[in-house]
Amino acid sequence: MIELPDTALQSVIHVIQTSLTPIFLLSAIAALLGVFTTRLSRISDQAASLTTATGQEKNGDGGGDPIAMIRLQHLRRRSHALDIAVFLAAVGGACTCATVLALFVGALNSSGLGPVLFVLFGLAIVCTIGALSAFLTEMLIAGRGLRAEVTHHEKRLG
Length: 158
Hints:
- By secondary structure, the chain is mainly alpha-helical.
- The protein has one domain (21-55, 63-157).
- Helices cover 89% and strands 0% of the residues.
- The protein is built from four helices and no strands.
- The longest helix is centred in the N-terminal third of the chain and has 49 residues, at 6-54.
- The mean pLDDT is 81.
């Protein structure tokens, strides 16, 4: 068993405790990426179902149902918003990991990594906020599309 002097042990404990904050953010980002992936899968399924139902996949002439074309454009906008969310969340996760790595490297060589930590963790937070904003955009687009589809069906039935 390795025995460390009390001051070295306290230093290691402090670094581990300090690194827990970014790790909690990393867990949250991972959960967000799971949500984004699920929503992107649903969009993909809807697009595949829509193109199969309208026969656009087979003939590819683009002269299909105009409502189906509007829905496909709508799904494209949603997928773009989710692409941005996934990208920003992934960058935020990478910055979070880099923050933890910088904490450990800084503890080893006792250099002044304060500005680097500030930039990395700040960038992780900014990217996470951006990912949530893109996700909010996708959710608003989805809600607007759902309401438009309901209105269309109400007019058809009523």
